[in-house]
Amino acid sequence: MSDDKQAQSVGIVLVSHSAQVAASVAELARGLAGGGITVPVAPAGGTEGGELGTSAELIAAAAASVDRGAGVAVLTDLGSAVLTVKALLAEGDELPDNTRLVDAPFVEGAVAAVVTASTGADLAAVEAAAAEAYTYRKV
Q1: Of 2, 70, 81, 103, which is most buried with the most CB atoms under 10 A?
Q2: 98's torsion region: left (phi>0), alpha (psi -120 to 50) or beta?
Q3: What is the number of other CB atoms lying within 10 angstroms of the CB of residue 48?
């Protein structure tokens, strides 16, 4: 992949109520992505004080850290994480331009998003791959 393509990759933010869960899912997704471009992935878990919950500040900082100009896909674990991201999107200036809240299962969707982004896919394709993870059968 060219450096330009890598520089323009879709960023992924993983929002969980737990810092450990967000970090672990990020590690898993990166590890399963294999070759291709290195996708900027940032966990945004818990609160600034290390408690369970969600933090608008941590989410905004994570999104800014992964923004490479190709868009940012945000995946969440539970309801209030969704509400926090929706509130940030409604503000209009808290998240990078072209940030999307992706409706996908947290773990499977994160893996699909990172794997797809590692191929150089655009934000729409990353979002579609993550959402498609709802259809994965385990048995």
Answers
A1: 81
A2: left
A3: 9
Q: Other CB atoms closer than 10 Å to residue 1's CB: what's the count?
A: 13
**From 12, 15, 17, 106, active-site residue:** 17
Active-site residue flag, 119: no
Count of Cβ atoms closer than 10 Å to residue 24 Cβ: 16
pTM of the model: 0.93
Question: What distance in Å separates the CA atoms of residue 112 and residue 43, rounded to the nearest whole number?
Answer: 16
Q: How far apart are CA 86 and CA 38, in angstroms?
A: 27
Of 81, 82, 62, 86, the C-alpha closest to 72 is 62
